[in-house]
């Protein structure tokens, strides 16, 4: 028997149980539960569970704080389940998840250097 995601979600909402395989999944599931007010299974899509683009922004922000590394919003559209997000965000290394603070500091330094260079050229 095939169950639809909505049926699965209703079952999880009633029982508030999520069957998790790792601590990584638990961290992500806890955040999902706060944002969605539901406890979908690890293989239920964030968007099938009621997630929206706006909620995905909140999810990215909360995951970034909880995990201590930048979570690109686009990755939440590519990895839409708790299981796939745990594997992508925690269980593997990703060069695109660079420390945003370092990147912003670099940009600020480059802007400062460019401003000084322009000021020196002025007659």
Strand content: under 5%
Low-confidence stretches: 1-16
What's the number of extended β-strand segments?
0
User: What's the main sheet like?
Assistant: none
**Helix vs. strand class:** mainly alpha
Bin the helical content: 55-70%
Tell me the span between the first and last alpha carbons: 79 Å
Average pLDDT taken over every residue: 76
Which overall shape is indicated by the principal axes computed on the Cα atoms?
elongated
Helices, by number, come to: 6
Radius of gyration: 20 Å
Summary of the model, kept short:
The protein is mainly α and 123 residues long. It has 6 helices and no strands.
Structural commentary:
This protein has 123 residues and is an all-alpha fold. The chain is built from six helices and no strands. It has helices at residues 5-15, 23-36, 53-67, 73-78, 82-89, 100-121. Helix 2 crosses helix 3 and helix 2 (23-36) crosses helix 5. The N and C termini lie far apart (79 Å). Mean pLDDT is 76; it is low at 1-16.
Describe this protein with a few key phrases.
disordered N terminus, 123 residues, elongated, mainly alpha, 6 helices
How would you summarize the topology of this molecule?
Layout: H1 5-15, H2 23-36, H3 53-67, H4 73-78, H5 82-89, H6 100-121
Helix pairs in contact: 2-3, 2-5
